[in-house]
Amino acid sequence: MATYTPTAEMAANAARGLKIRESKPPSQRGSTIIGLGRARDIVARRPMSEDTVRRVKAYFDRHEIDKQGSTWSDEGKGYQAWLLWGGDAGYTWSKNIVDKLNKIEDRYYNDANDDTAYRRYLYKRG
Questions:
Q1: Smallest Cα–Cα separation from 47: which of 75, 19, 102, 10?
Q2: Tens of pLDDT along 54-70?
């Protein structure tokens, strides 16, 4: 199965998010344990599976609204969490990968005349 390595810009954003978070009092620290783990993986530029990249994109899809929050400009919780997941670079990266993966899947789903091609695709995905 293919893996995808976070970009240097994503790693820099995640590192910056960790630094900002650390500088805040506990009541003003953003993210969950999952977000912190993701940030550490991104900073280390650990390759991610397709499923993990999809979760990264899903995070951004759900939290894009956070940019309109009242504490965004003060580097509040939403701002910190956004950076921890790779920031705008992470959103663009994950969207591009997921879009590409979805096009591949759509090609097989929509080809009703070639069931064996779809089975080969599923087998390769493991």
A1: 10
A2: 999 999 999 999 999 99
Separation CA 85–CA 101 (nearest Å): 20
- The count of other CB atoms within 10 Å of the CB of residue 21 is 22
| pLDDT per residue as tens digits for the range 66-91 | 999 999 999 999 999 999 999 999 99
Amino acid of residue 83: L
Integer Cα distance of 10 and 99 in angstroms: 19
What does the buried/exposed string (b/e) look like for 52-89 if buried means 16 or more CB atoms within 10 Å of the residue's CB?
bbbebbebbeebeebeeeeeeeebbbbbbbbbbbbbeb
Please identify which residue in the block is written with the tokens 């499923």. Answer: 51
